[in-house]
Design a protein that fits this description.
With 81 residues, the protein is an alpha+beta fold. It has one domain: Arc Repressor Mutant, subunit A (Orthogonal Bundle), CATH 1.10.10. The chain has three helices and three strands; from the N terminus they run H-E-H-H-E-E. A three-stranded antiparallel β-sheet has the order 1-3-2. A hairpin with a 2-residue loop joins strand 2 and strand 3. It is globular, with a radius of gyration of 14 Å. The model has no long low-confidence stretch (mean pLDDT 77).
Length: 81
């Protein structure tokens, strides 16, 4: 396995953003048995599906890293399948 050296917080942020985008674009919900997911996922559903902490998702949304919808005070994530 290669060692990755990150020299700045911006480079680390970019690496996380790129990795998350790749995961979201290449994940097949139906293949993983999640075909019963609703069209919009709430923060708990999205965090469980992506195996990320809710705080991590909140951080990604506040930085504009991950696409989301905000209705009132609640965040939703579009199910792309």
């Amino acid at each position: 396995m290669e060692k990755i050296i990150i020299s700045t917080p911006i480079e680390l942020s970019n690496l996380i953003e790129d990795s998350l985008r790749k995961i979201l674009l290449h994940t097949d919900i139906h293949k993983e048995g999640h075909s019963d997911l609703p069209e919009l996922l709430n923060i708990l559903q999205a965090s469980e599906y992506l195996s990320l902490a809710k705080q991590t998702l909140y951080g990604f949304t506040s930085k504009g890293v991950i696409p989301h919808l905000k209705r009132g005070k609640k965040l939703y994530f579009k199910n792309l399948n």
